[in-house]
Write a sequence for this structure.
């Protein structure tokens, strides 16, 4: 059973912000939202995660709605190297609940 | 800091042969995961270990697949006998188990069974 829903594909112009949505309407109070990406032929790469507050790091920003039923990953200035499949995952953190199950993700294509 | 190390990176084998994939997790990580990725099924969790003990192997497709973790720095995924439908990229990943932890992936082992 899929815990998250993402659009299968999106395009973004180089230099513009890429906003990738994710719906997780059945998220539980103790579940985190994680984002990973996978560039062709490489292993998935961690981007960012959050529980309920918005988060920002050197790669991206994560905006989580107040009801936590959806979130948006923002790449502020997309480059061609950001072309990848982006996975949104919800899971419980902590001991004994450490499995990470991936859905289909969103294939982001950054165009010049 | 060395990341998750997998070997071999590429393997081509004949149907019926035994295949062994190897993984060295990041030092200090106590969780290890094996994933399989195909075009048809995407990225699937096969099995994961905590402190060398298998916790959930419900994703292992069938008895031909087995995984072991004899110590904290080494794990194997074995397929015996291999079949063409086992052709996929197999990823190993590791993490340190605490709230908010992340998982770090290796570069994958590309398996082709002919």
């Amino acid at each position: 059973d899929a815990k998250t829903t993402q659009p299968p594909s999106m395009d973004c112009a180089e230099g513009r912000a890429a906003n990738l949505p994710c719906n997780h309407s059945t998220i539980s109070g103790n579940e985190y939202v994680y984002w990973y990406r996978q560039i062709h032929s490489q292993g998935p790469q961690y981007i960012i995660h959050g529980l309920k507050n918005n988060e920002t790091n050197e790669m991206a920003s994560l905006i989580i709605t107040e009801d936590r039923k959806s979130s948006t990953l923002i790449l502020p200035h997309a480059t061609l190297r950001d072309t990848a499949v982006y996975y949104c995952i919800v899971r419980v953190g902590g001991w004994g609940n450490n499995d990470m199950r991936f859905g289909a993700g969103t294939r982001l294509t950054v165009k010049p | 800091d060395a990341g998750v190390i997998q070997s071999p990176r590429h393997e081509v084998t004949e149907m019926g042969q035994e295949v062994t994939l190897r993984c060295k997790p990041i030092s200090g990580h106590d969780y290890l995961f094996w994933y399989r990725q195909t075009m048809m099924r995407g990225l699937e969790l096969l099995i994961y270990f905590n402190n060398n003990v298998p916790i959930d192997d419900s994703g292992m497709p069938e008895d031909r697949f087995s995984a072991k973790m004899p110590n904290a720095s080494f794990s194997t995924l074995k397929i015996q006998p291999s079949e063409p439908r086992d052709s996929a990229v197999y990823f190993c990943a590791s993490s340190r188990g605490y709230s908010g932890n992340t998982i770090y992936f290796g570069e994958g082992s590309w398996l082709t069974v002919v």
